[in-house]
Design goal:
Layout lengths: L7 E3 L5 E3 L4 E9 L5 E8 L9 E2 L2 E3 L6 H13 L7 E10 L5 E8 L12 E8 L10 H10 L1 E7 L6 H6 L3 E4 L5 E5 L7 E6 L7 E5 L6 H4 L4 E7 H5 L1
Parallel strand pairs: 3-8, 10-12, 10-13, 13-15
Antiparallel strand pairs: 1-2, 3-4, 3-6, 4-5, 4-9, 7-8, 11-12, 14-15
Length: 238
């Protein structure tokens, strides 16, 4: 479906980028068995820009669209993703140009690895485990953005909360830590990642460190250094 944003934006340096009003893509994350996560990737058709590489479903923004609307629309058009199954967690401008053009990655979750249907812009669509994304030939723009978009897995420790059930019901999910990146927070005690300490004090801020804890996590009980993060309930439920 063509919109009024389809076309090239050219800057004073002569570089062109697709999307008269900028572009957006959807990084959709879904849970895997065992606490892990997968992201939806598109194997781009040979005729497309950087054809044969893997990237996110996405494309040009129309003049009336927000980045979120454009990214969700593109995922529906190119991958058959039901917009009602998408829960947006964050937006990141992951590329820009002198022309004022920008590419915004919309980070979102869904409850399961949804069935997909490809259009002519895709050779294939795949739910790829997050730790296997870089095993594929990535679109250069996506490859440059991926380190900042990838979510670090973490196991939620809810023992300090009076209402742990409320937080547990919201898991697993992506948690936006702003300039510290993203967490994939889950509740599988045997799953990947260090432990996330959840506190009720909503005035606290996220603080990551390599810490030797005195209890709670099995690794800590053996005196091992555990990658930990402190989160508030507000951060998780935002």
């Amino acid at each position: 479906m063509r919109g009024d944003g389809d076309g090239w934006s050219e800057g004073p340096d002569g570089l062109r980028h697709w999307g008269k009003y900028g572009a957006a893509g959807l990084l959709l994350r879904a849970p895997l068995a065992g606490g892990g996560s997968a992201v939806l990737l598109q194997h781009r058709a040979p005729w497309s820009h950087q054809g044969g590489t893997w990237a996110l479903p996405g494309g040009a923004k129309d003049s009336h669209e927000s980045s979120v609307h454009a990214a969700v629309r593109e995922a529906w058009e190119e991958a058959g993703i039901d917009p009602t199954a998408v829960r947006v967690r964050a937006e990141r401008v992951t590329a820009s140009a002198l022309s004022g053009w920008t590419y915004t990655t919309v980070v979102a979750d869904t409850d399961q690895t949804l069935r997909t249907s490809r259009d002519r812009e895709s050779l294939e669509l795949a739910w790829v485990p997050e730790d296997e994304v870089t095993d594929r030939p990535l679109h250069p723009g996506f490859a440059a953005a991926w380190p900042a978009l990838r979510a670090t897995p973490a196991r939620a420790c809810l023992s300090e909360l009076d209402d742990a059930d409320t937080v547990a019901a919201a898991l697993p999910r992506t948690v936006d830590l702003a300039d510290q990146g993203f967490l994939w927070l889950h509740s599988d005690p045997d799953g990947p990642g260090g432990y996330a300490r959840i506190v009720a004090d909503t005035a606290a801020t996220a603080d990551t460190a390599d810490t030797a804890e005195s209890g709670g996590a099995p690794e800590a009980q053996t005196g091992a250094l555990v990658r930990t993060v402190s989160l508030t309930v507000r951060q998780i439920l935002a």
